[in-house]
Amino acid sequence: MGLSSGVPPLRLVNGTDRCSGRVEVQHDGQWGTVCDDDWDIRDAQVVCRAVDCGTAQTAKSSAYFGQGSGDIWLDDVACVGNETSLLHCRHPPLGENNCGHGEDAGVVCSGIISVVAVICHLFLFVCMLYA
Ligand SMILES: [Ca+2]
Ligand SMILES: [Ca+2]
What we know:
The chain is α+β, with helices and mostly antiparallel strands. Helices cover 20% and strands 23% of the residues. It has a single domain (10-130), classed as Mac-2 Binding Protein.
C-alpha cells in the first residue's frame, strides 16, 4: 500500500476499498489474521483509526472478506476503543488462539478522512496545515 513508515503493521485485505476488508497484522515479518472471537465495534474502531479510515461502521466476522492464510496472530481481542494499535488492546499472546481461518475478522470503516490522509502522505506540508 506504500503508506509511510510509522504506520502500525496492519492492513485490510480483500475489501471493496482500502478502508474495508479482512484485518491482518504483521508479526515476526509474517502477515496473519485476527480471530472473530469477541470481535466487536470497539476493536474495529481501533483498526479504522490505525489505518486512517475514520470511524468503524461494522465489525465483520466469520471470514466475511474471505479466509486468510498463515498464522492467526490475534484472538479474543478486547479493545476499549481509544487504543492507537490493535496490539495495544488486551489479547492473549500473539499466535495463541482456538480458531480457524473461517473465523477471520474484518472491518468496514467510514473512510471519511481517507482523502485527507492520502493528501498528507503525498504532501507533508498540507498535512501540517490540517494538524
Ligand atoms: Ca472485543
Ligand atoms: Ca478464542
